[in-house]
Amino acid sequence: MPDRPATDLLNIEDQLTAEELQVRDKVADFVDRRVRPNIAKWYEDAVLPTELLPEMAELGLFGMHLQGYGCAGRSATEYGLAMQEMEAGDSGLRTVISVQGSLAMSAIYKNGSEEQKQKWLPKMAAGEVIGCFGLTEPTAGSDPSSMTTTARREGDEWVLNGQKRWIGLAAIADIAIIWAKAPTEDKDGNTTEKVRGFIVPTDTPGFKATVIDAKLSMRASQQCDIDMEEVRLPADAILPENPGLRGPFSCLSEARYGIAWGAMGAARDSIETILEYSAERLQFGKPLAGYQLTQKKLADMALELNKGQLLALHLGRLKDAGELEPHMISVGKLNNCRTAIEICREARAVLGGNGITGDYSPLRHANNLESVRTYEGTDEVHTLILGNKLTGIPAFR
Q: Where is the Acyl-CoA dehydrogenase/oxidase N-terminal domain (predicted)?
């Protein structure tokens, strides 16, 4: 019998192909070598280890699920497995890949012109250009339709004004995909205001990104405020396809799918941590793992992990078959984030006082998951998406 992780109670590995296992193992090796030995210090110091970005690109992680343009062209399931391994290392580092590939690159891939794709995607896949995705605003989080960022047309230029908040990688990005309300002409020649995407080089005058400090979560990553004042862009900076919220929402679906996998990585790493710890930690003359209460906690956590992993795998198979629907992604994001954070919290409790130190991962994972649970749609938003699917009645307002 092949060696399997102790947490794999259902032989889930048997459902994976040799190619999928190869991708998983390659990313797991990277995490073991480059992330685990350093992540506690990076987290404590609130440092995004930018030296890892070229290595991530070399592994083919940037836009790895996109076809052509220098991208790896891997399957959705392979991408999901890679995100599970990256988040087993740290959610913040998995977010780097999500922002670059699922958001910034996907925005160009799904909504850009062929010229824009040829210009930017190969460089982004190679890590030569880093991107960010500016949708959320200080007063427009779960309701992006209320954004106040605007783009007006002046001759051969677009002029952007507004603010964005919680924008990953913005302070190190070379380009920003900025979503703004802009006048848009329909096929009948009528002009209405719609949300449009723009490719904004971050060295454009009037564009400023400021790192958000004093975070209690996602400390080994970077989130920023963006201020734009009379940012002037050429006419061809606009993403021509899919005007309206369909443009950014299709990118959010990509990111949410990756999160459904990634959260299970944080959960699995937490269980593996306490399996090792409880086998060695002696209390009242025997290992902590030998007590019934500890075994109950381990069993409960492993059950939820296996269910979440099977859910993520099912979503991957559906996505590869072209059958994944938006509400299904909400099932994965809502369930697996909620499950993962409870597993990580319970794992921290098994560690006792030692669990609040950086020597052990569960509390760091739990803190990170507070952010993961919030971005790309809060629990409440995904609950309402599913409620709408079940009843046919939208209850967002």
A: 17-128
